[in-house]
Amino acid sequence: MKSQQPLLSVRELCVDYITESGDVRAVNSVSFDIMPGEVFGLAGESGCGKSTVAFSVARLHKPPAYISGGEILFKGENILHFDDERLRSYRWRQASVVFQSAMNALNPVLRMEEQFCDVLIAHNPGLTRYEAIKRAQELLAIVDIHPSRLKDYPHQFSGGMRQRLVIAIAMALNPELLIMDEPTTALDVVVQREILQKVYALKEKFNFSILFITHDLSLMVEFCDRIGIMYAGELIEVAPSKAILTAPLHPYTRGLGNSFPPLHGPKTVLEGIPGTPLNLLEVPVGCRFQARCAKVHDRCRQEYTALAEIRPGQQAACHLYADGLADDELASEPLIFAQAAGC
């Protein structure tokens, strides 16, 4: 039975970037929980703030980015208050990151043996090199790569194998939270599925939690327990994966889902989302999605939207529900790729 206490609690997180034109708030008052053993997804188009949230949870931001407000609680401790020594023990041992570009994440001039040993010995000073190599061999076997490949360089591996190597390094210290920032973006769909199936099997075996970040909603609904949808730096919907697939509440979630073509079933016209992403230097009063929303009305242009529970376990930041203007089509019709899947 899963614990009722969250492993990770993000509360009113705000992240700003300093620019010559003024400070830009890339993440605005984002809050969510991740339970032990849960896979929580963050989806949204490029520039919506997904990776900024991930870097905040790992405390990897460097200037010009800075966390300007909120809390990030890991097992009740606010990581924003960690000093360098505590932060060092938190990273990789309690929370680790699988970056979106495996080729850039791996050092091209070092053999994989050196890269594994660097991580293991840096966090376990008493570990001998022999013990580190044995642990590295165990990690390669876990991700279905022969231990003898430790002597190889990153360029000697395929794209899918490099991604598995990055996952193995991220799991080296048995972290409780694995942050995956678009880990399969550069891979073909067959390899994507293989990688995610392997990660899910490892999660079931070692019982760690996952923060999974991608712009691909169709991929996310198969992998995650719950999903948060981000737009222009804000969390606008949080719901179980099945609800996101079959009954999305926010107009943006519907537009995002209908931007993906179904893999089978009859041909259909994709709806897409009109307009362009919001310029964060020119944030309007009211809802940030108003300029692109077909359901916009007066209140949307005047009042800020905040997450509220619309159905049990399903939250949305949309005035349509508070004002009783959400029609049956918006509230219950499944997305195009969900209809093709028979949902």
Automatic annotation (TrEMBL):
SUPFAM superfamilies: P-loop containing nucleoside triphosphate hydrolases. SMART domains: AAA. InterPro entries: AAA+_ATPase, ABC_transporter-like_ATP-bd, ABC_transporter-like_CS, Oligopep_ABC_C, P-loop_NTPase. GO terms for molecular function: ATP binding; ATP hydrolysis activity. It comes from Aeromonas molluscorum 848. PANTHER family: MALTOSE ABC TRANSPORTER, ATP-BINDING PROTEIN, OLIGOPEPTIDE/DIPEPTIDE ABC TRANSPORTER, ATPASE SUBUNIT. NCBIfam families: oligo_HPY. CDD domains: ABC_NikE_OppD_transporters. Keywords: ATP-binding, Nucleotide-binding, Transport. It comes from the Bacteria. One of its GO terms (biological process) is transmembrane transport. The keyword Nucleotide-binding applies. This is Peptide ABC transporter, ATP-binding protein. Residues 10-257 form the ABC transporter domain. The keyword Isomerase does not apply.
